[in-house]
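Troubleshooting: if your tokenizer reports a length mismatch, compare your output against this known-good record of 246 residues.
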Amino acid sequence: MSGRFFRRTNANSIVQKLTVKAVMERDLVRKGDRILIAASGGKDSTVLAWALSAIRPALKIDYELAALHISTDFCACCKKSILAQRLAEWGIPFVDLFVPIVGRLKEGEKMNCYWCSTQRRTELLKYAVENGFNKIALGHHLDDIIETFFMNLCAKGSMSTMPILLRYRKYPVSLIRPLAYLEERQIIECADMLNILSAVCTCPYGLNSKRRDIRRRIADFTGSSGAVKRRILGAMASGDRDLLVE
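Known-good structure output:
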């Protein structure tokens, strides 16, 4: 057995195991769910799509998957044909929706990550409601959740982060983050083994400077330990439940 085969099997197994753990512990998927995957074309959402398809036998839950990719007027790097092909191989229908995110900016306003995220989320919700999906799956992982917590704590004085499960009051849709127990490095290893990295999209705006700084600080005081990061997540969840509200 080759070393690469072993690494591939191990990386894929870890992603599946921790995705199942998050789904079961957080009650993210139920029988009859129609789940819309927010497929950005990046490594995280692509691994998410693969994982949700791959863990079906382990979950023994009947649920439906589909993927929505939002094309924009500022990023054309996503290799959508390859993305669509991969999703088809995993039995996931794919829809590409164009949204003029820059075109919606008012005069004098500048493009930023918050504006883009808000516009994408609005379109995801709209599409999900109009097409009968009751859940939207996002590809955020453990590092995203912890970084957001410390960014909100330091910049806003708010103890809040990305919830693993968010039920909307205004819409018949919930947001789920099945990769919440996975570190980014584990997702990268899986993406590499699945040959996903060569065909993913990278946003031209990239990580903002504040998130980069917080990421470095977290790496320093955790020693980049996955166990420490998961204890932080556990502390956030076992304390005030408001910590998990967006």
